[in-house]
Structure formats: C-alpha cells, structure tokens
Amino acid sequence: MTIFKPESFRPTADLPLYQQLYMHLRAAILSGELKRGLKLPSTRALADDLNLSRNTVLNAYRQLTAEGYLEGHAGSGTFVADVLPEHLLTTPDRKLATTPERIEPPPPRSPTLSLPPSKSGLPRPFRSDVPALDVFPYELWSRLIARQARRMPRTAFSYQDPAGYRPLREAIAAHVTVTRQVHCTLEQIIMVSGAQGALDLAARVLLNAGAQIIPIPIDQDGLMIEAAIARAPQARLAYLTPSHQFPLGVTMSLTRRLALLDWARRTGAYLLEDDYDSEYRFVGRPLAALQGLDEAERVIYIGTFSKVLFPALRLGYLILPMPLVEEFLRLRRYVDTHLPILEQAVLTDFIVEGHFTRHLRRMRTLYAERRAALLTAARDLPLDIYAPEAGIHCVGWLPAGMDDQTLVRQGAAHNLDLTPISIFCLEPLARKGLLLGYGEYSVAEIKAGVRRLAAALRSMSQSGTTH
Asked: Per residue in 88-109, pLDDT tens?
C-alpha cells in the first residue's frame, strides 16, 4: 500500500500505533483515496511495508471492520466496504436549520412498579442504569476533592463561565478526540447537568415552539432511516443512540449512519447523538462516534459521566457545531448560569492524571465478567436473551403471550427490580421483554438474582397469570 509511508507511524504517549493506522485508513476510505471494493494487503504484508507489528495492523483492520469500513471475505481477503455513497465523501455547504415546528406531548405510557428502597439502600437486581458502584475508587476521589477544596482560589466562589470549567473542557476535548474520533475544540463544549441537562438545553434552543414526537422502528442495524423519512418527512431533529441503542442494545450500521447524515445535510435537520455508555465495549475499541463522520455540522454530541463513573455526579457535556454555540450559551445564562465548580475541578484531575482511563479499562474487564456470569446463570431461563458485547445491560425477551407488567409485579415479590422494555415504547411491541442490568452486581448477586427471577417465572406459570 503506497499511500502511507513507514515514517508516518511513530509511538506517542496519547495515540497507539494501531489507532494511528486506523485513523489513516479511515480518512483514506472517506476521502476516496482507497476506493470502494479495493482489496487491501494482508495484515502480514502491510505490517512488513510499514515496519509495524502484525498485531498493530490486525487491530486496526478489526476496528475498521467492526465499524463497517472494511469487509472480510473468507478465502479472498479484506476489502474496502462497498457502502459509502459518493456524495457523502465530500464536504457539503454548511447551513443552519430553520426552527422546528410545533409539537404535541406523547401519549401516556404504561406505568411501571415503584419499589421502596432496599434495606441496604443499594439497587436490587436487575436495575439497568447503575454502574459498578462497589468498585469505584472512593478514597482516591475523596483525596482529589480535599486537594481541590484546599487550593481553590477566591475567584472560584464567584460566577463562572456558563460553558463550564475550561480545564475540564480541554480534558474532554482531548479524550473524545482520541477515544471516540470526535472532531471538536474546547470552544464547542458546554458542560451540563448530565445527559438530561443536555437534552433539556437542546430542546429549549431547537424546539422553542414545542415538538411532535414520532417513534421510529429499530432493527438489527439500528434506526430504520427509510421508515423515519416516510413517517416524518419534515422532521427537524432526530434523537438517537447509534453506538449502543437504548434500550435494545444494537449498533447502527455504517450504511445507516451515512444515510442519516445525508438526510440531515439535505434537509437542514439536526441529529442529537447520545453517546451514553459507548466507552464500555468489550471486544475491540469503542466504535467511533457519528459526530466524527459529520462534515456538515448537523450532529450535536451528548456525553455523560453518570454511567461511566457514578449517577450522583451530574456532569455531562454537549459538543456543538460552532454556529450553535453562542445561542446555546445565551440561553444557558438564563437557565442555570453554570454548574458547581468543585466537582468539575475534581473530575478534571481525575481525567488528566490518568485515573479515568485506568478506571474505564478496569470496568470493561469487570463488566465482561459480570455479563458472562449473567448469561451462564440465565441459560436455563425461558427467556431469549440478547447480550451485545457492550454496555451494562442485556435484553431478555419473554415467551410469547407473557405479560411484562405481571412479571414485574412477580419480580417485586421476589425482591427484584425489573424494567419492562414497553415503558420506552410509544407503540405496542410484538413481543414483550425486560432489561437485565448487570453492571452494579457481583457474580454472587447475579446468580442469586437469576434464581429469584426463575422463581418469579415459575410463579406466573403455576398461577396461569401469563397474560
């Protein structure tokens, strides 16, 4: 392969060699320098050409294949994927969208059961929204809080920048550029109160006259773009979780991502990309964000630390197209001015000193173990379990005809906190299912929880209350 030279790749503290190669190849594919359908050299041949180890090339190929840029054909080799529309490989004109139209509230959802706190105060199995609080480095976090509190200057007690603590925004920009292939500067980042704060601010700016919520079906490749366009041809805003769709857990294919970006570019719509837990992918690197593919400034990226650290840390961030930054900041000044400064300063130290990266690495290993424990323990349950190698929950589809709300009540009687998928849907589901979270629970707690779930399922069968 002649487009790269061996001297292009040198070890750095921030960017491993395989990631450098990944980024070079990805850019060459998107620019058209590597044509669709082109056969790439074998991993061994390219490694020899570039003076790299074979594992370096293999890791880059695997990541590109996982994201849909490459395709492996058994017995034939590795090829550039034949799914990249040519009009997406150029930079379009940049425009601002018009204001979205008036909206109506969604129809009421089926209520779910609210349980009193457990005796220990900890979540019962199988809450899907709680990370591993049992292994968070509390002592380290406490030391960072004490250190920041002692040295905080007098200016920290006055009004702050509404965009957020500048060193934290610098740290976030550096992190997401390397780990998520997000393209941004610190000026594009606004700190908010978790992902909910991000959604609230975006809605206030972009939907100042309200919004009509249109549900879109999901399949194994993610949000169904053609169905979305047919249902809402005049849509001005789309909310999605492409890297790990919530709640079903599927990953949006590259073909769908590019089609969605093309739709946003053509219509002037915006895309709200909620990247809530994509750091937790157990095989290969986390998939690149949709924002990194956006050349038309249509993607608003949402990140949060609640799922990767702890929920009480209400810190999240928006990464905005530059034309939107001032409007978001103007409204932010009227909403809540800015976030508390101490937590932002502590989080900055946690990231800059390397604790965040180490914590993520430990959690990926831990969650992979807990996921495996859940799958092993639940293999005899009458559930069809879908467990993607990412995140902190899986989906358990119920037997045909079984009522999810009845099972939730039976689960509560067995000291389980079950979440039905139906509460996230605006349209009836053909099949009911549950979210089964494993992030917060030890292997022993997972096994015990599965036994109680089995008992709840038996109770339904014995009583004949499946409907």
From this structure: 444 444 333 333 333 344 444 4
Q: Which residues contact 110 (CB under 8 A, 6 or more apart)?
A: 405, 420, 422, 423
Token pair, residue 169, equals 């925004």
Q: What is the pLDDT of residue 327?
A: 93
Domains in the chain, CATH or no CATH each: 6-84 (1.10.10.10), 138-353 (3.40.640.10), 357-463 (3.90.1150.10)
CB 171 within 8 A of CB 288: no
Residue 153: asked if its preceding bond is cis (omega within 30°), the reply is no
443-463 and 404-413 helices, crossing angle to 10°? 120
What distance in Å separates the CA atoms of residue 330 and residue 300, rounded to the nearest whole number?
Answer: 17
Per-residue pLDDT at 165: 94
Q: What was the pLDDT predicted at 90?
A: 46
The two three-digit tokens of residue 428, written as one number: 């009836």
Quick one: pLDDT at residue 91?
40
Q: What is the pLDDT of residue 288?
A: 77
- Kindly report the number of other CB atoms within 10 A of residue 98's CB atom: 10
d(CA 282, CA 368): 6
Buried b (16+ CB within 10 A) or exposed e, 24-35: bbbebbbeeebe
Tokens encoding 332: 């932010």
pLDDT of residue 138: 95
User: Euclidean distance between the first and final Cα of the chain, in Å?
Assistant: 61
Residue segments in the chain with a per-residue pLDDT below the cut of 70? 1-15, 83-122, 283-286, 462-467
What's the confidence (pLDDT) of residue 129? 86
203 burial type by CB count under 10 A (0-12 exposed, 13-18 middle, 19+ buried): middle
Angle at 217 (CA atoms; ends 216, 223), nearest 5 degrees? 80
Taken in order 135, 138, 140, 145, the sign of the CA dihedral is positive
